[in-house]
Design goal:
Chain lengths: ~750, ~130
């Protein structure tokens, strides 16, 4: 097994000449490392293909740097500064909150103003499956522990009360479940209420912040190191600077307001029509103890008082006062910067990487350079789907997914990158993974080493995927002599159709699966206005994604209620916190990909690919220019680097009911898919036998062409494997020929004849 | 009697899983013939020709087993040098069996297949399956 090695990341995926990128590097080895710039061309090391290709490019940052190990804080929490020690509770205090633990067997800090190293302060913790209140003066830790263990995914009302004059510490929990807010309902004869009081002395006041969902280990340069991160939900935590009386305690248990709080954090405060895209936890006490959310706890989560009759948090914010914390969430590694790179004015648009090398170990940190604003350098643009790269970032599907091998139909092959990912939690997870407490991951960040974004990474089920797969296209464009610009989802999301308009042809490569509303708008406006689009992938424009407005290096995804789902949002939690809109599939929001590209996701077959059989439209004389050089009876793409065919992994087909244009021409359909190629869930209503490629005619990839307004057109090959066949036989093959026929014509100024009717 | 402590309750489906596993393995054992082993060795994915129904049934069964403890092919050098590994719980380093090196992914994946068959009782431990 390879030891840990040098790794890096940059602050965002996309950049233009004149703009600057920051790079962050960490290594477990002392000494120096070398940084340099490379242009990426082909990543797939499959010996049947062109092999790995990159070109060295001179850059001003290139040189040797001092290596250092940088710490990553993982786990979500809320940090509240308390330099004046007003939350220290030394004169007595009452803490109340609602909580819904997910891993109660693990030691966790729920709310604390506690130094775990010095054992000073106060804390509400989970220990051995039970709640305990701690008071520590540095020598003695006084403890009161609830006698009743916590059930996972069950709401409790929790109180901690320290009466300084009486010298007593009390912790109390009461079950607060209803028919919908917890794992099980009122029919269970649950006896979970309990309390304990114990003698206690005045706690010390350590120089640490108040933390919600963790314990401060120590403080370094004003930044708390947090341990014992909590897993689960917390709702409405509030702190009073005195020991409240019994009447007030009863009111708090009922969820009623009791005045006089020193701090009262309302996690729903700020919810508006655009969701709650904020990293602030608002203190509604009026005392200004605003909290900062670190590592992106889940927002817009159902709270203790959720009644199940409203599923959209924007419409019932008072029932969405919970944050869901996970001890493995990550929004930013927050390493110190090693160097910056200002993109020179003459650096061509393209896919690049900073190459880091130390003692034979190499890491490549990719980024994508767009042309200068308003100055496209080519007639062709490739839009790399960086939202999808983020969705898959550091996915560990085959290592962790119980059914992954059955889905893929293969026994997995892992390499050192996979092992590094699964054994080191500080790289964070993808939206295909589950947090340790079983919740699907709904946020993904660029600001961390993303090991499956390395150009030569090969997915654990044996194929290149996402960026390494898109390099198949970059290589082919380069080999065939096309001039092209590289754009990203991040660019198009921000700038819309205006960014695409100058280009004669825009290509979407292998797997642009995750899209924002803005991205769909951009393509739709571009194509409707006379643009020419080539969709050389599949399962594109499928899941709804949104960009975090305050942290544009992050996206949010909520999966459900149907689709090829790695996980499914819990009831009441399908709406995005970052924009307030419904998550799930675009087809369920009336924006099926068929409306833009003619085809949409229909089946996956990840073990074996197939070729295409020509349909009658392939002989239509109006399309002869597409089929030029391809024999009428030839099978198209029964070869390739991706499982032996151009139609494979995931495939799309036309569907008139979902918006395929009536004038779409069907040139070819893939045939010969096997029993592991299966119809996707949203295509099934009842389950039934006969949904595989052997039996079902809906399991296929369609090659489609149609014209739009103003000389525009769309050509869709509808398969993730298509680009993996381009290099076959030294780029001389019918997949390459067809793609080139279309691209040269699309990129030319020559008008396209309208194909309006059969 | 109220429900008080989550640790006092076990997952009753464990018994069902054990029963199902035993029953299904007994049904599949006769399908693990020298011909099926040879078919897998020659073309583990069925890229060159569709897999036989027998092999598909056996593969579906072993693909569906829980992840922890599953064996996998470990690429020391992709396309050149492979070992057999065993998955551990998340955060734990998998065990790599270094004794046998495989020069191709096909051979390594077949070794995984045989290891899984043995573990599930579908291939006697004394049968290597290498030369069916």
């Amino acid at each position: 097994m390879k030891p840990l090695q040098i790794r890096g990341y940059c602050d965002r995926p996309n950049v233009r000449p004149g703009e600057s990128l920051d790079f962050f590097v960490s290594s477990p080895q002392a000494g120096r490392y070398r940084a340099s710039l490379v242009r990426l061309i082909h990543g797939d090391r499959n010996p049947a293909g062109p092999g790995y290709r990159e070109e060295a490019v001179a850059a001003d940052f290139a040189g040797n740097y001092q290596a250092r190990s940088q710490r990553t804080q993982v786990g979500g929490y809320v940090e509240v500064a308390d330099a004046g020690a007003q939350l220290a509770g030394t004169d007595g205090f009452t803490l109340h909150l609602f909580m819904w633990p997910t891993l109660p067997g693990v030691r966790q800090g729920v709310v604390s103003r506690w130094s775990d190293a010095a054992r000073q302060g106060w804390a509400l913790v989970v220990e051995d499956g039970r709640l305990s209140a701690l008071l520590g003066d540095g020598e003695t830790v006084h403890r009161a522990s609830c006698p009743k263990p916590l059930f996972p995914e069950t709401w409790y009302s929790v109180l901690v009360r320290f009466d300084a004059s009486a010298g007593t510490l009390t912790v109390e929990q009461r079950v607060a479940l209803n028919s919908v807010n917890s794992r099980f309902g009122p029919v269970v004869n649950l006896d979970g209420d309990g309390a304990q009081s114990a003698p206690a002395g005045v706690p010390a006041s350590p120089a640490v912040p108040l933390l919600i969902a963790g314990l401060a280990e120590t403080e370094v340069s004003g930044c708390a190191r947090v341990v014992a991160n909590y897993n689960g939900k917390i709702d409405s935590p509030k702190l009073y600077p005195l020991a409240l009386g019994d009447d007030d305690l009863a009111r708090l248990h009922r969820g009623e307001t009791v005045g006089g709080a020193r701090a009262h954090w309302d996690f729903a405060r700020g919810i508006g029509r655009d969701g709650i895209p904020s990293e602030r936890a608002v203190d509604i006490s009026g005392n200004g103890f605003e909290g900062l959310l670190v590592n992106q706890p889940d927002r817009a989560m159902t709270g203790w008082n959720w009644l199940g009759r409203e599923e959209h948090f924007v419409h019932a914010p008072e029932q969405y006062g919970a944050l869901w914390f996970h001890d493995d969430s990550l929004d930013d590694c927050r390493w110190e910067r090693d160097f910056s790179f200002t993109i020179p004015a003459d650096l061509p648009s393209g896919a690049y990487a900073v190459r880091l090398e130390q003692d034979g170990a190499v890491d490549r940190v990719p980024f994508f350079v767009a042309p200068p604003r308003g100055k496209p350098a080519a007639r062709i643009a490739v839009v790399l789907p960086t939202f999808s790269y983020l969705a898959y970032a550091n996915s560990q599907v085959m290592q962790a997914g119980q059914t992954a091998q059955a889905i893929m139909g293969v026994l997995t092959t892992l390499d050192s990158l996979d092992i590094e990912l699964s054994t080191h939690v500080h790289y964070g997870l993808s939206t295909y993974d589950y947090h340790r407490d079983g919740r699907g991951v709904q946020y993904s960040s660029w600001r961390r080493p993303i090991l499956n974004l390395r150009p030569d990474y090969r997915h654990e089920f044996g194929s290149v995927w996402q960026f390494p797969a898109d390099l198949h296209l970059i290589d082919w464009l380069t080999a065939r002599g096309f001039d092209f610009d590289v754009l990203t989802d991040h660019d198009v999301h921000a700038e819309g159709a205006a960014l695409l308009e100058p280009y004669a042809a825009v290509i979407s490569p292998s797997h642009a699966e995750y899209s924002s509303w803005e991205l769909l708008d951009a393509y739709e406006v571009y194509l409707a206005g006379g643009g020419r689009g080539m969709y050389l992938g599949a399962n594109g424009f499928y899941w709804i994604a949104s960009q975090h407005p305050e942290k544009p290096w992050m996206i949010e995804v909520r999966k459900g209620e149907s689709g090829d789902q790695a996980w499914r949002a819990r009831p009441g939690e399908l709406f995005h916190s970052t924009n307030g809109e419904r998550g799930g599939l675009w087809r369920h929001r009336a924006r099926a990909p068929q409306k833009i590209w003619g085809t949409g996701y229909t089946a996956h077959g990840l073990d074996v690919s197939a070729g295409y059989r020509q349909m009658p439209d392939a002989a239509d004389p109006r399309l002869a220019w597409i089929m030029d050089g391809i024999e009428r009876e030839a099978v198209i793409g029964d070869f390739g680097l991706v499982n032996g065919g151009a139609a494979g992994l995931e495939v799309d087909r036309i569907d008139y009911a979902l918006g395929t244009p009536p004038n779409a021409m069907l040139l070819a359909c893939s045939f010969g898919h096997n029993e592991n190629a299966l119809l996707v869930p949203e295509e099934q209503y009842f389950v039934y036998p006969g949904i595989s490629g052997r039996d079902n005619p809906l399991v296929r990839s369609d090659i489609v062409y149609f014209t739009t307004r103003n000389g525009g057109a769309v050509f869709s090959t509808s398969s993730m494997a298509w680009c993996g066949s381009l290099s076959h036989n030294a780029y001389d093959n019918n997949v390459s020929r067809m793609t080139e026929n279309v691209l040269r014509r699309f990129a030319s100024a020559e008008p396209l004849p309208e194909v309006a009717e059969d | 009697m109220p429900v008080v402590d989550p640790l006092r309750y076990r997952d009753k489906t464990v018994a069902w899983w054990e029963f199902f596993l035993r029953q299904r393995a007994a049904e599949l054992a006769p399908l693990v013939t020298p011909e099926v082993l040879a078919e897998h060795l020659a073309d583990p994915r069925g890229v060159n020709q569709p897999q036989s129904h027998a092999l598909r049934q056996v593969l579906d069964f072993i693909h569906n087993q829980p992840t922890d403890g599953k064996s996998f092919a470990y690429a020391v050098t992709p396309y050149a040098d492979y070992r057999l590994g065993v998955m551990q719980a998340r955060g734990e380093e998998p065990a790599i069996v270094d004794e046998v090196a495989y020069a191709s992914e096909r051979e390594a994946v077949h070794a995984v297949f045989l290891e899984r068959l043995r573990r599930l009782g579908l291939l006697p431990a004394d049968q290597t399956g290498e030369n069916p």
